[in-house]
Amino acid sequence: MRLTVIGTGYLGLTHAVCMADLGHDVMGLDLDADKVERARNGEAPFFEPGLEPLLRKNLDAGRLRFTTSFAEAADFGGVHFLCVGTPEAAGGRADLRHVHAAADALAPHLWRPCLVVGKSTVPVGTARNLAARIRERAPAGDSTDVAWNPEFLREGFAVEDSFAPDRLVFGVTSQRSAALLRHVYAKLLDGGTPALVMDLETAELVKVSANAFLATKISFINAMAEICEKAGADVVCLADALARDGRIGGRFLSPGLGFGGGCLPKDIRAFRSTARELGAESVANLLGEVDAINLGRRSRVTELARDVVGGCLAGRRLAVLGLAFKPESDDVRDSPSLHVCGQLLREGALVSVHDPVAMGNAALVQPALRYASSVSEAAADADAVLHLTEWTDYRAIDPAMLAAVVAQRNMIDARGALDEAAWRSAGWAFRVLGRRGHPAGPPVRAAEELSRRR
Fold first, then answer.
1. Which of 24, 156, 222, 400 is 20 to 30 A away from residue 182, measured at CA?
2. DSSP per-residue letters across 131-153
3. What CATH code is carried by the domain that includes residue 330?
4. Which segment of 216-220, 232-236, 251-255, 448-452 scores lowest on mean pLDDT?
């Protein structure tokens, strides 16, 4: 089939590349000429494992092309995917300006029957309103149809999720639209992926409800981490016991610094705003608590840092490992790590940071940080090291090696991903959110230990 994908950001470029790799002829559209030129040259403007090789493969195969022209895109395809952003607006609402602008720019060029498919995360009711908006402006009128096919991509696993999704959700108003979507995703459906066909409103709610449930599960275990700290219990053992209950399961039940990124936080806030507008106050209140618990974890890490260096952060040297909101991504939008870094800076700390791929993006947001080319450089003379993004590289750090460069051996593992026993055996005072403390004596200064060795 000939498909167009409007928007070549994270969602749009990934969708365009993967649809082309499934055998479709795809045209990606973006008004940003620089992004289009980079895509034509096989360059992804963000880090996503496996995406750039697929981009180049499908460009070379002639199945993928890019344009800045809505007229060209409308003429090219019969199914048009809307993959533009819905950022957070005032009051937590979803900002639909990009969705409306894309639809308004496309509609005047729709001269023949076609299907416009939304993939962006939007408030319930958006799709039906958009359908009326497009039909009013399109020369084809009622021969244009709108469907909603929400995405469920995880950053760092977007290619995998595109080819092996848990399910495909089709929000439609006609059998014709459902049939077209089944044709688009025929290879996935033949491979066993289930297709769930429903009305527009339910499809919109599937995405925001899934995100809300995930956020609630993460915030729940982090709330348990808080009570474990106060009660002298161990949240890791608690989470393990809960995970063995078949009704609960262990996925996303890992306590830590909480969630961030460009989707989950803004989506639950937008859902909360929609719930309030619809009069569903219990939903709005629940999501408000979920958000508050999540943000509270960031403040708790700052408290721990203050505590381990003696009660005052002013003038203290701190090393932060990880800046992206999650590993295998260079995305720093609403990054818990950067949020903590900002709190540390405001209290007068000197903060050196390291991340395998996200330092360029982080520097645009937080230029006052000291960006190090290696973990050792970041940790040099540090009074505490904070592990804030669980990159695999950081699990391989030799605690003894790092002990030789720091001023004090204080480790705060805010992700609970490091080998606590190995770090403690190397003389580190080790703190984990929600775990019962193990007395390890006062922190040992690396210089003092080196002196004793001599």
1. 156
2. HHHHHHH-TTGGGEEEEE----P
3. 3.40.50.720
4. 448-452
Classify 370 as helix, strand or coil.
Answer: strand
State yes or no: pLDDT of 314 exceeds 50.
Answer: yes
CB 393 within 8 A of CB 418: no
Same domain assignment for residues 140 and 229: no
Examine the pLDDT at 182 and tell me if it is beyond 90: yes
Tell me how far apart the alpha carbons of residues 134 and 132 are, in angstroms, rounded to a whole number.
Answer: 6
Q: State how far the Cα of 217 lies from the Cα of 154, in Å rounded to an integer.
A: 16
For 139, list phi and psi in degrees, rounded to 5. -55, -30
* Of residues 332, 207, 357, the one with CA closest to residue 260: 332
Catalytic: 263?
Answer: yes
Three-state SS for 48? Answer: coil
Take residue 81 and report the two structure tokens written for it: 């995917």
Radius of gyration, alpha carbons of the chain: 24
The DSSP code for 258 is -
Predicted pLDDT at 434: 87
Rounded to 10 degrees, what is the CA torsion of 66, 82, 56, 62?
A: -60
pLDDT at 340: 98
pLDDT band, residue 435 (cuts 50/70/90): confident
Amino acid 189: pLDDT? 98
Residues 144 and 209 both lie in one domain: no
Any residues with CB less than 8 A from the CB of 61 and at least 6 apart, and which?
A: 20
Single out the residue of 339, 373, 368, 379 nearest to residue 355, CA to CA.
373
Taking the C-alpha atoms of residue 193 and residue 275, their distance in angstroms, rounded to an integer, is 31
Which of these, 333, 327, 390, 320, lies nearest to 361 by C-alpha position? 333
Instruction: State the Cα–Cα distance between residues 244 and 350, nearest whole angstrom.
Output: 43
Which residues have C-beta within 8 Å of that of residue 11, sequence separation ≥ 6? 83, 119, 120, 151, 153
**Distance between CA 377 and CA 382 in Å, rounded?**
10
Of the chain, the end-to-end C-alpha distance in Å amounts to 73
Binned at pLDDT 50, 70 and 90, residue 437 comes out as low
Alpha helices in 309-374 (DSSP H): 336-346, 359-365
Cα–Cα distance for residue pair 188/119, rounded to 1 Å: 17
Q: Report yes or no: 415 and 325 within 8 Å, Cβ to Cβ.
A: no
What distance lies between CA 40 and its chain's CA centroid?
A: 26
Whether the CB-CB separation of 119 and 15 falls below 8 Å is answered with yes
52 lies in the same domain as 100:
yes
Average pLDDT of the chain, as a whole number: 94
Q: Are residues 275 and 168 in the same domain?
A: no
- In the set 237, 263, 312, 341, the catalytic residue is 263
Give the range of the structural domain holding residue 147, as residue numbers without chain letter: 2-198
Domain co-membership, 337 together with 395: yes
pLDDT > 60? residue 441: no
